[in-house]
Amino acid sequence: MGRILAIDYGTKRTGLAVTDPMQIIASGLTTVETKELITYLKTYVDTEGVEKFVVGEPKQMDNTASESEVYIQKFLEKMVKEFPNIPIVRVDERFTSKMAFQTMIDSGLKKKQRQNKALVDEISATLILQSYLASNF
């Protein structure tokens, strides 16, 4: 059984989260500059074995696609070319950034630490992955 890797895609930074090999626990992995993302993913997939990608799907409150979906679609086209044998699943990511910020507050992080946008992206990816895992059990 391979890992599931979640992606919270952003135009500048992209948060990543991953499951354990048994696909039970979702953990934050890192945040990568988006321009380096494909290179990072190639290395990670080669060394860790990824069974599936879960990519956040930003939606508006009325269920229509968010403005950032245009960029995500271009990224997904690259993903399909680079990783043709790894399925990609989309998961609604509404409110994940707000939930990530609240998680940071609840865990007692200081204000300075909560301003770390890379950490917010990584936590958001973890929440996307947890949502996917919960919906598939």
Automatic annotation (TrEMBL):
<keyword id="KW-0690">Ribosome biogenesis</keyword>
<comment type="similarity">
    <text>Belongs to the YqgF HJR family.</text>
</comment>
<feature type="domain" description="YqgF/RNase H-like">
    <location>
        <begin position="2"/>
        <end position="100"/>
    </location>
</feature>
<keyword id="KW-0378">Hydrolase</keyword>
<keyword id="KW-0540">Nuclease</keyword>
<protein>
    <recommendedName>
        <fullName>Putative pre-16S rRNA nuclease</fullName>
        <ecNumber>3.1.-.-</ecNumber>
    </recommendedName>
</protein>
<dbReference type="InterPro" id="IPR006641">
    <property type="entry name" value="YqgF/RNaseH-like_dom"/>
</dbReference>
<dbReference type="InterPro" id="IPR012337">
    <property type="entry name" value="RNaseH-like_sf"/>
</dbReference>
<dbReference type="InterPro" id="IPR037027">
    <property type="entry name" value="YqgF/RNaseH-like_dom_sf"/>
</dbReference>
<comment type="function">
    <text>Could be a nuclease involved in processing of the 5'-end of pre-16S rRNA.</text>
</comment>
<dbReference type="InterPro" id="IPR005227">
    <property type="entry name" value="YqgF"/>
</dbReference>
<dbReference type="Pfam" id="PF03652">
    <property type="entry name" value="RuvX"/>
</dbReference>
<keyword id="KW-0963">Cytoplasm</keyword>
